[in-house]
């Protein structure tokens, strides 16, 4: 077995206006390479907080995250940025497309940041996501579901080893949702590790493991 991710005793307390909020409480789990892991839980239970910590977009209060056997929480910012660019792909809860750039440019952007132009791959991914007609459109003029599909294509442009997706199918119809779940299961079968947050129970048919999150705690689901 090849353990790609190990989260140990992870805690996150937000402090705001003198008020403390324990968003994550002693979260521990590990992930094998190529697993499709899903987190399900009510609004406010800490799902986005967890993905953001793994994505190194926010600092943990305590605990440890090993990625490919190395502690990543204590890396310097430049090393974190490198890891994000080279190894991780993200689909955020809100699509995060840049409004001033076309859909195609948005998808190509993580490659351009790496100094590579992957226009051809971007077009292939657009086609895979069924939005090839939208390549020249600007994000504010496409639908919510189309934005989500563009965001998924963007997350895949640099061939990440770990894909982190926060409710990537929230705006999609049932058929498209199933297709994305199936796509993610296929990516996982091809060796890309996928961590996804969703509210949709249907995902259980596709995921290797479903963790239920409640009140900042993780409960093994099935
Ligand atoms: N930056 C922040 N500062 C203070 N509190 C925060 C911050 N971000 C999130 N929280 C709080 O932490 C808790 C967990 O939030 P989180 O966004 O992780 O929930 P979630 O499970 O993703 O919910 P949803 O399904 O609505 O997206 C919530 O109570 C939220 O209000
Ligand atoms: Mg969330």
Descriptive report:
Helix content is 31%, strand content 29%. With 222 residues, the chain is an alpha/beta fold. It has a single domain, classed as Rossmann fold (3-Layer(aba) Sandwich). Strands 6-7-8-3-9-10 form a 6-stranded mixed sheet. A 4-stranded antiparallel sheet has the order 2-1-4-5, covered by helices on one side. A hairpin with a 2-residue loop joins β1 and β2. α3 packs parallel to α5 and α4 packs across α5. The mean pLDDT is 94. It binds adenosine-5'-triphosphate and magnesium ion.
Brief sketch in words of this structure:
This protein is of the alpha/beta class and about 220 residues long. Helices cover about 30% and strands about 30% of the residues.
Q: What distinguishing features does this structure have?
A:
six-stranded mixed beta sheet; 222 residues; four-stranded antiparallel beta sheet; 10 strands; binds adenosine-5'-triphosphate; Rossmann fold; binds magnesium ion; alpha/beta
Q: How do the strands line up in the largest sheet?
A: 6-7-8-3-9-10
**Helix and strand run:** EEEHEEHEHHHEHEEE
The overall strand count is 10
Beta-strand content bin: 25-35%
- Tertiary shape: globular
- Please give the alpha-carbon distance between the first and last residues: 20 Å
**Major sheet details:** 6 strands, mixed
The CATH H-level superfamily is P-loop containing nucleotide triphosphate hydrolases
Q: In the CATH classification, which architecture applies? A: 3-Layer(aba) Sandwich
* Uncertain segments: none
Tally of helical runs: 6
Structural class, from helix and strand content?
A: alpha/beta
User: How many individual domains?
Assistant: 1
The CATH topology: Rossmann fold
Approximate helicity band: 25-40%
| CA-based gyration radius | 17 Å
The hetero compounds bound to this protein are:
adenosine-5'-triphosphate, magnesium ion
């Amino acid at each position: 077995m090849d353990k790609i991710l190990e989260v140990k005793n992870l805690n996150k307390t937000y402090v705001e206006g003198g008020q403390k909020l324990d968003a994550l409480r002693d979260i521990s789990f590990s992930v094998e390479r190529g697993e499709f892991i899903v987190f399900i839980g009510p609004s406010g239970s800490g799902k986005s907080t967890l993905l953001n910590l793994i994505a190194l977009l926010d600092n943990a209060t305590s605990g440890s995250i090993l990625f490919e056997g190395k502690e990543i929480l204590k890396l310097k910012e430049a090393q974190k940025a490198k890891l994000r660019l080279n190894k991780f792909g993200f689909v955020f809860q809100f699509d995060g497309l840049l409004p001033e750039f076309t859909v195609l440019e948005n998808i190509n952007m993580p490659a351009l940041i790496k100094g590579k132009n992957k226009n051809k791959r971007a077009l292939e991914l657009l086609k895979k996501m069924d939005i090839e007609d939208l390549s020249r459109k600007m994000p504010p003029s496409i639908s919510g579901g189309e934005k989500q599909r563009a965001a998924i294509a963007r997350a895949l442009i640099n061939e990440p080893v770990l894909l982190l997706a926060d409710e990537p199918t929230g705006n999609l119809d049932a058929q498209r949702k199933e297709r994305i779940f199936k796509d993610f299961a296929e990516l996982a079968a091809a060796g890309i590790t996928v961590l996804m947050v969703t509210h949709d129970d249907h995902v259980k048919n596709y995921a290797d493991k479903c963790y239920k999150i409640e009140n900042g705690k993780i409960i093994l689901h099935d």
